[in-house]
Specification:
single chain, about 220 residues, mainly beta, Porin, eight-stranded antiparallel beta barrel, four-stranded antiparallel beta sheet, 1 helix, 15 strands, about 60% strand, signal, OMPW, Enterovir_OMP, Membrane protein
Length: about 220
C-alpha cells in the first residue's frame, strides 16, 4: 500500500511534468533546435522523486522489526559531461520519514521521524548521446546524513551517518532546444546503526534502508 500511494503521487507529478513539457515544445519540429549531448555540457535537472525504503531493520535485543514510510520530494541534480558519453552527476534533496517498531502483531511503538540528506555522486554512461532519446546507466557513492530526528514514544533516538553504493538507470528525451524530459530510477544501498532509549533501557538496531528513488523531471542543458 505504501508503494502504491507513492507511485500514485509520482504518477501525478509525471502528469504535471508532461504538461510542462508540452508547454515548452514548439508546434513545429523544425523549430526545436536539437543538439546532442557533448563534452563540456552542463545539464541541470529538477525532478519530483518518490523515495521508497526497502528496509530490513532488526535488533538483537528487541523482538520485532522496524518500519520506515515513503516520501515524495523535489530534487535538484547537476551533471557535467566529461566526454560526449560520460558524465558525472551530483544530486541534492532531502526527505522525511516516519519510523515505528512492530514488536508483534498487536504492539507497535512510535519512534518519531527523521530527515535524510543523501548527497550522491554517480558516473554515468549515456547511450545514443547525439539522439533525442538518450538512455543512461550510472554507479557511484552516497553519503547519508541523518538529522532532525524525533524520538516519538522513546526518550531518545540516534542514527549514524554513513556511506553506501548507488546505482541508476534512466533516460533523457530532448523536447525543445536545451530542454529535455527525464525519467530516472536509483537504488541506494544504505545501512545505519540506530540507538534508542525506551523506558530507561537502551536498544540497538541494524537498519538496512536501501531506498529506491523513482524520479521524473525536466532538464536544461548549457
Amino acid at each position: 500500500m505504501r508503494l502504491i500511494n507513492t507511485l500514485k503521487a509520482a504518477g501525478a507529478a509525471a502528469i504535471l511534468v508532461a504538461a510542462a513539457a508540452a508547454s515548452i515544445t514548439p508546434a513545429s519540429a523544425d523549430d526545436m533546435g536539437f543538439k546532442g549531448k557533448s563534452a563540456g555540457d552542463i545539464l541541470i535537472r529538477g525532478r519530483i522523486v518518490g523515495v521508497v525504503p526497502d528496509e530490513d531493520i532488526k535488533s538483537n535485543t528487541l523482538a520485532g522489526e522496524g518500519n520506515v514510510d515513503n516520501d515524495v520530494i523535489p530534487e535538484l541534480d547537476f551533471s557535467y559531461f566529461i566526454t560526449d558519453n560520460i558524465a558525472l552527476e551530483l544530486i541534492a534533496g532531502t526527505s522525511k520519514h516516519s519510523v515505528d517498531w512492530d514488536v508483534n502483531s498487536s504492539t507497535n511503538v512510535d519512534l518519531g521521524s527523521v530527515r535524510l540528506l543523501p548527497p550522491t555522486l554517480t558516473a554515468q554512461y549515456h547511450f545514443l548521446s547525439k539522439q533525442r532519446f538518450s538512455p543512461y546507466l550510472g554507479a557511484g557513492v552516497n553519503y547519508t546524513i541523518f538529522y532532525d530526528a524525533k524520538s516519538g514514544a522513546a526518550e531518545s533516538i540516534k542514527y549514524d551517518n554513513g556511506f553506501g553504493l548507488a546505482f541508476q538507470a534512466g533516460f533523457d528525451y530532448a523536447i525543445s532546444g536545451p530542454w529535455s524530459l527525464n525519467v530516472d530510477v536509483k537504488k541506494i544501498f544504505l545501512n545505519t546503526d540506530v540507538t534508542t532509549n525506551v523506558g530507561g533501557t537502551t536498544y540497538k538496531a541494524d537498519a538496512d534502508l536501501d531506498p529506491w528513488l523513482f524520479g521524473v523531471g525536466i532538464g536544461y542543458r548549457f
